[in-house]
Amino acid sequence: MTLRLDAAIRALRVAAYRIPTDAPEADGTFAWDATTLVVVELDAAGETGLGYTYADASLVRLIEGHFRERIEGEDAFAIGQINERLWASVRNLGRSGLAACAISAVDCALWDLKARLLGLPLVRLLDARRDRLAVYGSGGFTNYDDARLREQFSRWVHDDGCQWVKMKIGADPVRDAQRIRSARETIGEAGLFIDANGAHTPRSAIAFAHRVADQQVGWFEEPVSSDDLAGLREVREALGGSGQAMEVAAGEYAYTPDDFRRFVEHGAVDVLQADLTRCGGVTGFLQAAAVCEAFHLDLSAHCAPALHLHVCCAAPRFRHQEWFHDHVRLESMLFEGAPQLKNGYITPDLTRPGHGLRLREAVARRYAV
Description:
Helix 1 crosses helix 3 (about 100-120) and helix 2 (about 80-90) packs antiparallel against helix 3. The strands form 3 sheets. The protein has an 8-stranded parallel beta barrel, surrounded by 7 helices. It has 2 domains: about 10-120, Enolase-like, domain 1; about 125-360, Enolase-like C-terminal domain (TIM Barrel, Alpha-Beta Barrel), CATH 3.20.20.120. The chain has helices at about 60-70, 80-90, 100-120, 120-125, 145-160, 175-185, 200-210, 230-240, 255-265, 280-295, 305-315, 325-335, 360-365, and strands spanning about 10-25, 30-45, 45-55, 135-140, 165-170, 190-195, 215-220, 245-250, 270-275, 300, 320-325, 335, 345, 360. The protein is α/β, with parallel strands linked by helices. The chain contains 13 helices and 14 strands. Strand 1 (about 10-25) and strand 2 form a beta hairpin.
């Protein structure tokens, strides 16, 4: 292997794509019919690194106008230095939210570029702890009728071998209880997760959890807003004290290491979630994993399975990856090298350098914003 000493980043490109869902979707607090993907590409020494985030098309202007001068010309191997400059530059813009998502896309592109310059799969560069990831099927939207819910969950469990599935709740507690019973009948002994997307209060979340206790729900994701750390702890303590084997999970809206630290210091979760498209990319995801290791908590990855695959194979205390219906469909459509689900697992392709993804430009162009 020849080390490329001249690894200055020569060009940055960024574009946004808005892809309609295959049908209208809703959870306990929101409804949508399209997903926006912002893609960043970085060139150095004849290689191109790719990263992306699920956010808003406004990030294109932020990355082009605010980040370009802090990235182009810099050493592609100096990821830490570039990161520090980017985080410092958004201090007065607000680090969390859109700015963090923009940095996440850039960071993922930087790590992909570094691995490609070294001729390595990203998981080899990061030091693999496992060679494949268990996934859970995630969908079961609140606007699905029972027939569609059953079809989706049956396929994931009985055809694709998923050990767990997750469904959205929170729009109608009475109907939710019936939907959960329908899901349990469909999946048999497989694990069942529910996600309220913050739709409940602590009191109503606890009452609902007791109501469906006989359906062996394995975890309750965001029973209350993830901003309500005291409320999450209240739900967690109530469920733990009742003897129910129902864990509380949250963390998908954590953007910085301090956000993750606060979750665990407040005793708010049994399982911490992280999303590298929001929390600072590969660098931020590994920081979240370090927090989990320090506090003896398991980590689960939120959405974006194609982009998470390599870093999750390197993360300590990792439990599973979300196989989110929208993102699986979109990533398979837009990227060469997107992982395929087999017997409940996805596996990195070690014959491809970096994270192995390449944008299908002709397909993506149809959805350009």
